[in-house]
Automatic annotation (TrEMBL), chain A:
Belongs to the bacterial solute-binding protein 5 family. This is Dipeptide-binding ABC transporter, periplasmic substrate-binding component. Residues 84-453 form the Solute-binding protein family domain. SUPFAM superfamilies: Periplasmic binding protein-like II. PANTHER family: OLIGOPEPTIDE-BINDING PROTEIN APPA, PERIPLASMIC BINDING COMPONENT OF ABC TRANSPORTER. Residues 1-20 form the signal peptide. InterPro entries: Peptide/Ni-bd (IPR030678), SBP_5 (IPR039424), SBP_5_dom (IPR000914). Keywords: Signal, Transport. It holds the Pfam family SBP_bac_5.
From TrEMBL, chain B:
This is Dipeptide transport system permease protein DppB. It is a multi-pass membrane protein. PROSITE patterns: ABC_TM1 (PS50928). It comes from Bacillus badius. It is found in: Cell membrane. The lineage of its organism: Bacteria, Bacillati, Bacillota, Bacilli, Bacillales. Gene3D superfamilies: MetI-like. It comes from the Bacteria. The keyword Transport applies.
Length: 535, 334
């Protein structure tokens, strides 16, 4: 027995020597491997987490939707860099005067990856699958973007019908201004009805769409491999033969893998690593345009913030440039409106309240608070893209407010409690933020600042009749240019009323090899990669 | 010995049951509703309520616990909230990845640790001895994630010797059969891939091995020092026996009981260290599986994942106890 044990130890020793030996011998060969494969047309995208399911209709997480963007397509698309709507699977569409009927004319001759035809019937089957599911737990995103399921009072879509092979008609119960933007979101991509039927419960592991890439394999928590769709209907796309998504959870480790060349493109770059990427000639930095806002909110029902002058005074006492430089590591743009500039209807003519303590003091005096006042400042307890460090930002605000005589006492609590209490209107001065989902102004202005949203997301309890009227009018307006005008007007009033101090729109960072061409990170968080190439 | 083994195995049940209760209580104490997290911030309250009900989380906690235990007894580890598939069906690839990594790390730790300890003891108070003890101290206190990132920086990026992440070359992936890639590549006769897999094992393996290696080296040194002071060793040396023979034939065997104990314990702790190592090195193992489940409050995966790891830990300790008897004939189990 003893001999055997010693023998075993000896064997282990020899084995480990052998392993170490052969690994160091072969390591020279390893370096060159990355080189020759780069030209072969495989693009590897490193990211922080795995997909939940590859059936986009039943997911809400960004990591799943990144894959959906490659495998599937939507009826209408977002433009490359903004949330403007452009044709997708539908080449054109018309909207009735009353905004209740949308008629889409589909592209001809497109096939799903399984060889079945993409046509009006396929679209109807997809929409019916969501609309009649009545399963709020499964089709949650559909319920939240389209008001609910068939037959419910809040449902936006009444029915959808095919008219011939390539015409689809949507009839709505009531007009929905962001209807097209909602349809452009990847959860509402068109899947092969034959494949959904064939795979049943396992469809989420066997996705079939019309997109630039076909699904090949999935190793959970590791890699998802997609291959070129040879029959893709857009000429010249996709550029790469293979697209692989690799999970590397740690942000620094993911960057290391990029520097080493094991992956070609990564998201979730730490802002502090931006300089390192800029300084490396083999790498390039990408900034994803913002679709969020971080803000300092006033409860307009509470003293002293029921006085607009006090709110304006504090707006003059916030140094946004310094906040962004110090706490967003420079990866954000100062916010002057409640919505980011990538959105249609953004009012760029508004002049922000400049950082001017004298003006702030003067306004406070006019409001009757010559000696300032004391207030609790609620600091966000969790990091969010729009507010990476709530505590530090609160401390900086506190220091500036002190200079105009406003003594802020920083308060913080557990996140769920924080939200609950702010929602209930318990706080007078608080920090919060929002990330948009469909890239529509309505999703910011109406959701966050309309009087209808008090008690849900209008934490400031801001109620302005004129703004309310404008926002409702915009919801019913189907002419995009006219809608944009309405939103611009609303922003001007909101700016005057100052229910918030909008602080920043953060811009998430990505990095890639310098050989990557035509990659445009989209504000919604994911983008089709058919046009991306490696030179 | 057989009766003893059976007795020890039957003691597993209360241990695992108690552990399950602790884990169950802990994860339910973390704030955050799984349904809310899965559906996102924008989900309607109705959707959250519907999903909560579907997951069975609207039931009182004790009923949820009893249901979970009942399912366990029938061999059902539950279903993941996130992927909606049975955990018993999806856990093996993760477990295999971790077993491969942990075995590799343990071999490194034992071979390097024991031998370093022996040399250190033999040449007590030499420069090697001091150096090793300093290294052991540093090794024990080294945060794994930091060590991992440093390894990547030095050996991958600066020296370009080894890959930073994953189990295989992403551009030439291994076809899984058993999910133990070293075995799979050999079965398929792909020696190039075998070497690739070994290269991927080295950095995470060494990062994971560092702490146990340091501890094993220290225990070996002190245990050897004790044995080498005994009379029979002095006799052996006096009669002119070679150093190797004295060390490996006479001393190590007698010094091995405490070393074996520590090896057993460290193997268990290794599984904990695996969570950090796997996160840094993009290693799709069980640590990674549990870690991402925590982010999504995927209760069944957290519970069953930890349960499986704990069962392995307890089993390793049982094996170590049985090995005592194999090494030392004076120890007998009844």
């Amino acid at each position: 027995m003893k001999k055997r044990l010693l023998g075993m130890l000896a064997f282990l020793l020899v084995l480990s020597m052998a392993l170490i030996g052969c690994s160091s011998n072969s390591s020279d060969g390893g370096g060159s491997k990355g080189g020759d494969s780069a030209g072969g047309g495989t693009l590897i995208y490193g990211r922080g987490g795995d997909a939940v399911s590859l059936d986009p209709a039943i997911v809400t997480d960004g990591e799943s939707l990144i894959i959906a963007e490659q495998v599937y397509e939507t009826l209408v698309n977002f433009d490359k860099k903004t949330t403007k709507i452009i044709p997708g699977l539908a080449k054109k569409w018309t909207v009735s005067e009353d905004g209740l009927t949308y008629t889409f004319e589909l592209e001809d001759g497109i096939k799903f990856h399984d060889g079945t035809d993409f046509n009006a019937e396929a679209v109807v089957k997809n929409v019916d699958r969501w609309l009649t599911s009545n399963d709020e737990a499964k089709f949650a995103y559909f319920a939240s973007q389209f008001g609910g399921f068939k037959g419910s009072d809040t449902a936006i879509i009444k029915e959808v019908k095919a008219d011939g092979d390539n015409k689809v008609i949507f009839t709505l119960n009531k007009p929905q201004a962001p209807f097209l933007k909602n349809l452009a979101m990847s959860p509402f991509a068109i899947a092969s009805p034959a494949a959904i039927e064939k795979h049943g419960d396992k469809y989420g592991e066997n996705p079939v769409g019309t997109g630039p890439f076909k699904f090949e394999s999935w190793k959970r928590n590791d890699t998802i491999t997609l291959v070129k769709n040879e029959d893709y209907h857009k000429k010249g796309e996709p550029k790469v033969d293979k697209l692989i998504f690799k999970v590397i959870e740690d942000n620094s480790a993911r960057l290391n893998a990029l520097i080493k060349g094991e992956v070609d493109l990564i998201d979730g770059l730490n802002p502090s690593d931006a300089e390192k990427v800029k300084g490396d000639k083999n790498l390039q930095l990408f900034e994803r345009p913002s679709l969020n806002v971080g803000y300092l909110g006033f409860n307009v029902e509470k003293e002293p913030f029921n006085n607009p002058k006090v709110r304006q005074a504090l707006s003059h006492a916030v140094n946004k440039e310094a906040l962004i430089k110090n706490f967003y590591e420079g990866t954000a743009e100062p916010a002057k409106n409640p919505m980011p500039s990538t959105l249609q209807g953004y009012n760029d003519e508004i002049k922000d309240y400049e950082f001017n303590l004298k003006k702030a003091k003067k306004l406070l005096a006019e409001a009757g608070y010559k000696d300032g006042f004391k207030v609790d400042l609620w600091a966000m307890p969790v990091p969010r893209p729009y507010m990476p460090n709530g505590q530090k930002v609160a401390e900086a605000l506190q220091a500036d407010f002190e200079k105009i005589g406003v003594k802020a006492n920083i308060v913080t609590m557990e996140w769920a409690t924080y939200l609950e209490k702010v929602q209930a209107g318990e706080s007078a001065l608080f920090m919060l933020g929002w990330t948009g989902d469909n890239g529509d102004a309505d999703n910011f202005l109406y959701t966050l600042l309309d009087k209808d949203s008090i008690g849900s997301n209008n934490y400031s309890r801001y109620a302005n009749e004129e703004v309310h009227k404008l926002l409702l009018e915009a919801q019913a307006e189907t002419d995009e240019a006219k809608r944009a005008e309405l939103y611009k007007k609303a922003q001007a009033i909101i700016h005057e009323d100052a229910p918030w101090v909008p602080l920043a729109h953060s811009t998430p960072l990505l990095a890639g090899k310098s050989t990557i061409k035509n990659f445009f990170p989209h504000p919604t968080g994911s983008q089709p990669m058919g046009g991306v190439s490696i030179e | 010995m057989f009766a003893y083994t059976i007795r020890r195995l039957s003691m597993l049940i209360p241990v695992l049951l108690g552990m399950t209760l602790i884990v169950f209580s802990l994860i339910h104490a973390i704030p955050g509703s799984p349904a809310q997290i899965l559906l996102g911030q924008q989900a309607s309250p109705a959707a959250v309520a519907a999903l909560t009900k579907e997951m069975g989380l609207d039931q009182p906690l004790y009923i949820q616990f009893v249901d979970y235990i009942k399912n366990l007894l029938t061999g059902d580890l539950g279903e993941s909230f996130r992927t909606r598939s049975p955990i018993s069906a999806e856990i093996w690839p993760y477990l295999a990845a971790t077993i491969e990594l942990a075995l590799f790390a343990m071999i490194v730790a034992v071979v390097a640790g024991v031998n370093a300890g022996i040399i250190s003891a033999w040449f007590q108070n030499s420069w090697f001895d001091y150096l090793l003890m300093v290294f052991a101290l540093v090794g024990v206190s080294m945060p794994i994630f930091w060590l991992g990132l440093m390894e990547q920086y030095v050996f991958s990026i600066q020296l370009d010797w080894l890959p930073t992440t994953g189990r295989d070359n992403i551009r030439d992936p291994v076809t899984a059969i058993t999910h133990l890639y070293l075995l799979d590549t050999l079965l398929q006769g792909r020696f190039d891939q075998f070497i690739e897999v070994v290269k991927h094992l080295i950095l995470p393996g060494v990062a994971l091995a560092t702490i146990p290696m340091a501890i094993i080296a220290r225990i070996t040194r002190s245990s050897m020092l004790e044995v080498m002071r005994s009379d029979y060793i002095r006799t052996a040396r006096a009669k002119g026996m070679s150093m190797l023979k004295v060390v490996y034939k006479h001393s190590l065997k007698n010094a091995f009981i405490p070393i074996l104990t520590i090896i057993g314990l460290q193997t268990g702790l290794l599984l904990g260290g695996a969570i950090l190592t796997e996160t840094i090195f993009g290693w799709p193992g069980i640590g990674n599986y549990i870690y991402s489940a925590i982010q999504f409050r995927d209760y069944p995966v957290i519970q069953s994942g930890i349960l499986v790891v704990a069962a392995i830990f307890v089993l390793i300790n049982l094996i170590v106890d049985l090995l005592y008897a194999a090494i030392d004939p004076r120890i007998k189990y009844r």
